[in-house]
Amino acid sequence: MTEWGELVDKTEMILPNIKVKPGAISEHVIVVGDPERARAIGDQLDNAEELAYSREYRTINGWYKGKKITVTSHGVGSPGAAVCFEELIKAGAKKIIRVGTAGSYTDELPPGSLIIADSAVRAEGLTKQMVPDGVPAVADFNMLLKLEEQAKKTNIKYGLGTIVTLDAFYAGPVQFPHMLYKESGALGAEMELAALYVIARLRGVSAVGIFALDGYAFSDMNDYNPHKDSVKKAIQAEIDIALETMLIL
Ligand SMILES: O=P(O)(O)O[C@H]1O[C@H](CO)[C@@H](O)[C@H]1O
Ligand SMILES: O=c1cc[nH]c(=O)[nH]1
Fold it and tell me: Where is the Nucleoside phosphorylase domain (predicted)?
């Protein structure tokens, strides 16, 4: 008897949200929040081709120094980003580097410097619906070492440590617990890394994250301006570090 599954032509299958076919991407994937950043990275690749631009998810294939790389934007916030990470993994992603921006917790890492995140605090809601409390959100150790190896070759300042993944960007009457996390050892805050680390570990793939600091997490986000030259320079530096890391993975 014919099984229902046999009637589905897998070559015609398309992932519902990122709108990419399984197998159409590289195993080496860079993920970024901003579709414009995805395009900018695509501009640095040879023979770049946009595979899809669906919702906030823009996916570009290209070649960096002879290595096939895919770049995808995942938008802002863990739930939407998680959809992207899951579908990228279904499409064939095995080594994922998040190239993001974050707010700093410390004067030792001023705007314009970088954080390489060995771990993320799960201060968001998405992973709580997926795995129990206490499950850590951690980087792949090998990818972390390789990423730091490349960062050391540059003269940009970076810190290696924990980043906090939050859901809210603009505060309400409830204050963000930034000071508590800072005193607990975190270096900065962003909005998607914990989801990436938890999902990568769950699905058996590897991931790491690097962040350009675009301000201080404690400051009033109504004055947020991530478009300063020093931040643009740091974003370019982390893109270069991520691309060079892909060559040795
Ligand atoms: O610059 P990206 O990669 O989007 O990362 C950070 O910037 C966004 C907020 O402006 C959030 O997505 C946060 O995680
Ligand atoms: O989530 C983010 C991203 C960049 N800068 C911040 O302060 N927070």
Answer: 28-241
